[in-house]
Amino acid sequence: MPVLACRTLTYAAGLALMLATAAGAQTSDLVSKTAFRVCADPANAPMSMQDGSGYENRLAELFAEKLELPVTYTWFPMATGFIRQTLRANRCDVVMGYAQGHELVLNTNHYMTSVYTLIVPDGSDLAGVERLSDPALQGKRIGIIAGSPPATHMARNGLIGKAKPYNLNVDRRVESPTEDMLNDLEAGDIDAAILWGPIGGPLVKQEHTRMKVIPLLKEELPPRLFFRITMGVRLGDKVWQRKLNSLIRRNQDEINAILTEAGVPLVADMGNRMLDAKE
User: Fold this and answer.
1) Domains and CATH numbers, the chain
2) Residue 265 pLDDT > 60, yes or no?
3) Which of 29, 128, 216, 272 is most buried, taking the most CB atoms under 10 A from its CB?
């Protein structure tokens, strides 16, 4: 056999091996075939709860039903080490809610876009406020999660001086800053609260029904206050990612129905308007 032909065959065989290896690296060998294994915080109301009452629990049930698998959970507080101790340890295969673009996980396509909200008592003089530059907020005591994006807008608009900060990174099994903030609002200790919509909206619907939730759609300067939420899978799990992408695309109406029923404010992908019920 000519040397050139021999080298060509050797090259072709090597290329085939590399392609097969690359394909193998993108398979879902680590993904369970017998259960829809979810990594979740056991006390992250209203999203995930060990008793199954969170809306992320309901999303997990929907996906498991479509896959014809039971749901199982690996519970761990959503704090430092969460991904390392759950997804990367191969104890579970998916995080139901993860902000788009985070480097610790491989993101699926987003299944919702939501926005930070201003929450005020019904009938208060702040009920008509739509942006944080509104003069009606001057001098008011506003609750804010320390280090969250709206804090920058508050500082820009001179609202930080009287703000009441609440902790960002906590073990929700022993401390719940979001629920503490809404309880303080009910008690009159603060005049308004700023919370991530997928947390504040459902909590108001469930437990604080005399409050008004105002999506902050009109903040034009950075940082942006709307975010696209995906599911997170292990880095390299491309086959599993594509499978979940397909499920998201084919079941978006049911996903939206679960989120809307829970009280999550859904907005258009660019965060500039509320999502129409038919979209």
Assistant:
1) 36-112+226-262 (3.40.190.10), 115-215 (3.40.190.10)
2) yes
3) 216
